[in-house]
Amino acid sequence: MSATTNKAASSASKAQKAALLDDEGDLTPKFEAALIRVFARFSASYKKRHPDVHASESKSSASLPRPDAADVLTEADLDAFSTVTNGATLPQESKNEIREFLDTDEEGNLTLRGFIEMYHLQSDNEPEETWKDLGKLGFDDSLGYNGEQAEQPETKEAEASISKEAAESRDKLYQGDD
Question: Locations of Low complexity compositional bias (predicted)?
Protein backbone atom coordinates (compact mmCIF):
# COMPACT_ATOMS: atom_id res chain seq x y z
CA MET A 1 0.00 0.00 0.00
CA SER A 2 1.37 3.44 -0.83
CA ALA A 3 1.96 6.15 1.76
CA THR A 4 -0.89 8.14 0.21
CA THR A 5 -3.27 5.20 0.55
CA ASN A 6 -2.18 4.65 4.16
CA LYS A 7 -2.75 8.32 4.91
CA ALA A 8 -6.21 8.21 3.32
CA ALA A 9 -7.12 5.07 5.28
CA SER A 10 -5.95 6.72 8.49
CA SER A 11 -8.02 9.84 7.73
CA ALA A 12 -11.08 7.73 6.95
CA SER A 13 -10.68 5.90 10.25
CA LYS A 14 -10.44 9.20 12.12
CA ALA A 15 -13.45 10.59 10.22
CA GLN A 16 -15.65 7.86 11.66
CA LYS A 17 -15.12 9.12 15.22
CA ALA A 18 -16.68 12.21 16.73
CA ALA A 19 -14.39 15.19 17.11
CA LEU A 20 -12.83 15.62 20.53
CA LEU A 21 -11.52 19.11 19.79
CA ASP A 22 -12.92 21.77 17.49
CA ASP A 23 -11.03 23.80 14.87
CA GLU A 24 -9.77 26.21 17.55
CA GLY A 25 -8.47 23.35 19.70
CA ASP A 26 -11.22 23.58 22.32
CA LEU A 27 -13.21 20.61 23.60
CA THR A 28 -16.36 19.89 21.63
CA PRO A 29 -19.60 20.07 23.64
CA LYS A 30 -20.16 16.30 23.27
CA PHE A 31 -16.67 15.52 24.54
CA GLU A 32 -17.06 17.90 27.48
CA ALA A 33 -20.40 16.24 28.36
CA ALA A 34 -18.66 12.84 28.27
CA LEU A 35 -15.92 14.10 30.59
CA ILE A 36 -18.48 15.53 33.01
CA ARG A 37 -20.16 12.10 33.13
CA VAL A 38 -16.82 10.39 33.83
CA PHE A 39 -15.92 12.91 36.53
CA ALA A 40 -19.34 12.51 38.19
CA ARG A 41 -19.00 8.73 38.08
CA PHE A 42 -15.71 8.69 39.99
CA SER A 43 -16.04 11.71 42.31
CA ALA A 44 -17.00 10.56 45.81
CA SER A 45 -17.96 14.12 46.76
CA TYR A 46 -20.27 14.40 43.73
CA LYS A 47 -21.92 11.06 44.53
CA LYS A 48 -22.41 12.12 48.15
CA ARG A 49 -24.08 15.39 47.13
CA HIS A 50 -26.16 13.69 44.42
CA PRO A 51 -27.03 10.24 45.83
CA ASP A 52 -29.90 9.74 43.37
CA VAL A 53 -27.76 10.45 40.31
CA HIS A 54 -26.01 7.46 38.77
CA ALA A 55 -23.48 8.61 36.18
CA SER A 56 -22.96 5.03 35.05
CA GLU A 57 -26.56 4.71 33.80
CA SER A 58 -27.22 5.21 30.11
CA LYS A 59 -29.34 8.35 30.51
CA SER A 60 -28.41 11.50 28.61
CA SER A 61 -25.29 13.25 29.89
CA ALA A 62 -27.28 16.48 29.75
CA SER A 63 -29.52 15.17 32.55
CA LEU A 64 -26.60 15.00 35.01
CA PRO A 65 -26.19 17.97 37.36
CA ARG A 66 -22.91 19.70 36.52
CA PRO A 67 -20.27 19.22 39.23
CA ASP A 68 -19.43 22.41 41.11
CA ALA A 69 -16.35 23.66 42.96
CA ALA A 70 -17.01 21.35 45.93
CA ASP A 71 -16.83 18.28 43.70
CA VAL A 72 -13.33 16.87 43.29
CA LEU A 73 -11.43 13.68 42.56
CA THR A 74 -9.46 12.61 45.62
CA GLU A 75 -6.42 10.33 45.39
CA ALA A 76 -8.72 7.35 46.01
CA ASP A 77 -11.08 8.57 43.27
CA LEU A 78 -8.16 9.03 40.86
CA ASP A 79 -6.92 5.54 41.67
CA ALA A 80 -10.39 4.10 40.97
CA PHE A 81 -10.53 5.99 37.67
CA SER A 82 -7.00 4.96 36.69
CA THR A 83 -7.64 1.32 37.55
CA VAL A 84 -10.63 1.28 35.21
CA THR A 85 -8.90 3.08 32.35
CA ASN A 86 -5.34 1.77 32.72
CA GLY A 87 -5.59 -1.37 34.84
CA ALA A 88 -3.55 0.05 37.73
CA THR A 89 -3.59 2.89 40.23
CA LEU A 90 -1.75 6.09 39.41
CA PRO A 91 1.91 6.21 40.42
CA GLN A 92 2.66 8.82 43.10
CA GLU A 93 4.76 10.76 40.57
CA SER A 94 1.68 11.20 38.36
CA LYS A 95 -0.38 12.37 41.34
CA ASN A 96 2.33 14.91 42.17
CA GLU A 97 2.31 16.17 38.56
CA ILE A 98 -1.48 16.55 38.69
CA ARG A 99 -1.14 18.71 41.81
CA GLU A 100 1.63 20.77 40.24
CA PHE A 101 0.25 21.39 36.76
CA LEU A 102 -3.55 21.00 36.85
CA ASP A 103 -6.33 22.79 38.70
CA THR A 104 -6.72 21.38 42.21
CA ASP A 105 -8.35 22.51 45.44
CA GLU A 106 -6.48 23.50 48.62
CA GLU A 107 -6.03 19.84 49.58
CA GLY A 108 -4.61 18.90 46.18
CA ASN A 109 -7.76 17.15 44.93
CA LEU A 110 -8.41 17.39 41.20
CA THR A 111 -11.26 19.73 40.26
CA LEU A 112 -13.55 19.31 37.26
CA ARG A 113 -11.57 22.07 35.57
CA GLY A 114 -8.33 20.16 36.22
CA PHE A 115 -9.86 16.89 34.96
CA ILE A 116 -10.94 18.64 31.76
CA GLU A 117 -7.47 20.22 31.44
CA MET A 118 -5.91 16.75 31.78
CA TYR A 119 -8.05 15.33 28.99
CA HIS A 120 -7.61 18.43 26.83
CA LEU A 121 -3.84 17.96 26.93
CA GLN A 122 -4.08 14.23 26.29
CA SER A 123 -6.57 14.64 23.44
CA ASP A 124 -4.45 17.29 21.77
CA ASN A 125 -1.30 15.13 21.97
CA GLU A 126 -2.56 11.53 21.98
CA PRO A 127 -6.20 11.32 20.82
CA GLU A 128 -5.92 7.55 20.40
CA GLU A 129 -5.24 7.24 24.15
CA THR A 130 -8.33 9.30 24.90
CA TRP A 131 -10.42 7.07 22.64
CA LYS A 132 -9.03 4.01 24.39
CA ASP A 133 -10.12 5.44 27.77
CA LEU A 134 -13.54 6.42 26.45
CA GLY A 135 -14.11 2.94 25.05
CA LYS A 136 -13.22 1.36 28.38
CA LEU A 137 -15.71 3.68 30.05
CA GLY A 138 -18.63 2.72 27.79
CA PHE A 139 -18.57 5.47 25.15
CA ASP A 140 -18.96 4.75 21.44
CA ASP A 141 -17.25 6.46 18.50
CA SER A 142 -19.92 9.18 18.40
CA LEU A 143 -19.33 9.91 22.12
CA GLY A 144 -22.68 8.37 22.97
CA TYR A 145 -22.74 6.67 26.34
CA ASN A 146 -24.07 3.15 26.24
CA GLY A 147 -23.98 2.46 29.96
CA GLU A 148 -21.98 -0.02 31.93
CA GLN A 149 -23.14 -2.91 29.73
CA ALA A 150 -21.08 -1.42 26.87
CA GLU A 151 -17.87 -1.28 28.89
CA GLN A 152 -15.08 -3.61 28.00
CA PRO A 153 -15.05 -6.74 30.22
CA GLU A 154 -11.67 -5.96 31.79
CA THR A 155 -13.03 -2.55 32.83
CA LYS A 156 -15.90 -4.11 34.75
CA GLU A 157 -13.50 -6.49 36.50
CA ALA A 158 -11.15 -3.67 37.45
CA GLU A 159 -13.96 -1.50 38.76
CA ALA A 160 -15.40 -4.36 40.80
CA SER A 161 -12.02 -5.06 42.37
CA ILE A 162 -11.53 -1.46 43.48
CA SER A 163 -15.10 -0.63 44.49
CA LYS A 164 -14.73 -2.03 48.01
CA GLU A 165 -11.39 -0.26 48.54
CA ALA A 166 -12.74 3.02 47.15
CA ALA A 167 -15.87 2.77 49.31
CA GLU A 168 -13.74 2.25 52.42
CA SER A 169 -11.55 5.25 51.53
CA ARG A 170 -14.62 7.36 50.79
CA ASP A 171 -16.23 6.37 54.10
CA LYS A 172 -13.07 7.35 55.98
CA LEU A 173 -12.90 10.65 54.10
CA TYR A 174 -16.51 11.59 54.81
CA GLN A 175 -16.88 10.09 58.27
CA GLY A 176 -18.96 12.52 60.27
CA ASP A 177 -19.10 15.01 57.35
CA ASP A 178 -22.87 15.47 57.26
Answer: 7-19
For the chain, list the domains and their CATH numbers: 20-56+72-173 (1.10.238.10)
Report how far residue 99's alpha carbon sits from residue 142's, in angstroms, rounded to the nearest whole number: 31
Residues 176 and 104: their CA atoms lie apart, in Å, by: 24
CB 79 within 8 A of CB 166: yes
Residue 81 DSSP SS3: helix
Long-range contacts of 111-116 (CB under 8 A, 24+ apart): 111/69, 111/71, 111/72, 112/36, 112/39, 112/66, 112/67, 112/71, 115/35, 115/38, 115/39, 115/73, 116/27, 116/32, 116/35
pLDDT per position as a tens digit, 138-167: 999 999 998 765 555 544 454 444 445 545
